[in-house]
Specification:
Layout: H1 9-29, H2 37-58, H3 65-74, H4 91-111, H5 132-147, H6 151-179
Length: 180
């Protein structure tokens, strides 16, 4: 893959390369009714299983796991153990993980509107502050320019790994809700 110097190009390249995985994750989590306490608890638990390993590996600027733990606690649920994420030393891989995590923040802000009144939603409401999404894209583009050959391929692998972890957690939670 090649990288263009235009701002947001790396995000666009990652978006195109991971579109099918992103759709799969969206489809899995769309089965959760966020206005149902049972489904919402399963949704948050699934996210916690994925987020725990992802944030530890990606080291994003804004951690959301503490907010998720707060929401789970308000629902009388413990923070589950994270799903394992295979270690990968590459800088591009870590940026790919961050791309998926930052994108999930955007989606979370939209999903927070579906949460029933009275249910905790600190995690889903943790949207980007003014200028943070643009700043992330600029940092992503800068890292891509400095990363050299193979960086973008590693970033795609990182993003795919993040989507796979969210999918694994969501499928397990969906089965538990349906077959509980």
């Amino acid at each position: 893959m090649t990288i263009s110097p235009d701002a947001g190009q790396t995000r666009q390249a990652l978006r195109e390369a991971t579109m099918e995985s992103h759709r799969r994750v969206d489809s899995i989590y769309a089965s959760f009714a966020l206005d149902s306490v049972i489904d919402y608890r399963a949704f948050l638990t699934a996210h916690a299983k994925a987020l725990g390993g992802l944030e530890a590996a990606a080291r994003p600027d804004a951690l959301r796991l503490p907010l998720l733990a707060q929401d789970l606690s308000a629902l009388d649920l413990p923070l589950p153990d994270p799903l394992p994420l295979e270690a990968h030393p590459g800088d591009g891989f870590h940026w790919g993980l961050r791309y998926a995590l930052e994108g999930s923040r955007l989606g979370g802000a939209m999903l927070s509107r579906q949460v029933a009144p009275g249910l905790p939603k600190a995690y889903l409401s943790a949207a980007h502050g003014k200028g943070e999404w643009i700043a992330f894209q600029q940092a992503l583009d800068s890292a891509a320019r400095e990363g050299g050959e193979g960086w973008l391929d590693d970033a795609v692998q990182g993003a795919q790994a993040a989507f796979a972890l969210f999918a694994q957690a969501g499928q397990a939670a969906d089965r538990a809700v349906c077959h509980g």
